[in-house]
């Protein structure tokens, strides 16, 4: 399995975990915002991301690109992810498998659980407004949101921001 396939597999199990916490199904807006806020919490607390996804500043808030591609495939009837997900309607998805918890750390599950608790009962508009944070506001529409901006918007202190910057620098040097 190459690095991109690992990213996809990890994203599948993150989404399945969130869906399980939401009773098995969700609209994608809520699902993606819960993941975004879990991501932000994990960056602030631990200096690392929950997923290896990249978030883009879309009209209704941040959207994770790998997760969105998975959703589009499911919605269009593709068989690639049929053993994991089923489209319920134009904007909703259902998990049809259990998440493999080997893909999630305890700290990741804790941040996801908190994000589910905080956001599961918010309306579409409330989630949109909440996700239109400093990171989203400083990013041009349809462009990638920086993990540094996400961490700052989530309240990361200067030491954690420096740590994240260093980790991103190290990671980028490995792949040059």
UniProtKB/TrEMBL annotation:
Protein name: Antitoxin SocA-like Panacea domain-containing protein
Location of the Antitoxin SocA-like Panacea domain: 31-136
Xref: InterPro entries: SocA_Panacea
A Pfam family matched in the record: SocA_Panacea
Lineage of the species this protein comes from: Bacteria, Pseudomonadati, Bacteroidota, Cytophagia, Cytophagales
Originating species: Dyadobacter endophyticus
């Amino acid at each position: 399995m190459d690095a991109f396939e690992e990213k996809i597999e990890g994203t599948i199990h993150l989404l399945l975990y969130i869906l399980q916490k939401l009773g098995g199904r969700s609209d994608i807006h809520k699902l993606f915002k819960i993941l975004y806020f879990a991501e932000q919490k994990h960056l602030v607390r631990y200096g690392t991301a929950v997923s290896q996804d990249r978030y883009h500043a879309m009209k209704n808030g941040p959207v994770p690109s790998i997760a969105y591609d998975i959703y589009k495939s499911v919605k269009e009837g593709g068989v690639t992810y049929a053993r994991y997900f089923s489209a319920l309607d134009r904007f909703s998805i259902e998990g049809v498998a259990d998440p493999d918890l080997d893909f999630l750390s305890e700290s990741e599950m804790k941040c996801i659980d908190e994000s589910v608790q905080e956001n599961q009962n918010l309306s579409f508009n409330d989630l949109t407004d909440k996700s239109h944070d400093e990171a989203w506001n400083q990013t041009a529409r349809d462009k990638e949101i920086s993990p540094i901006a996400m961490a700052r918007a989530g309240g990361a202190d200067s030491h954690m921001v420096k740590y994240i910057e260093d980790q991103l620098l190290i990671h980028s040097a490995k792949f040059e």
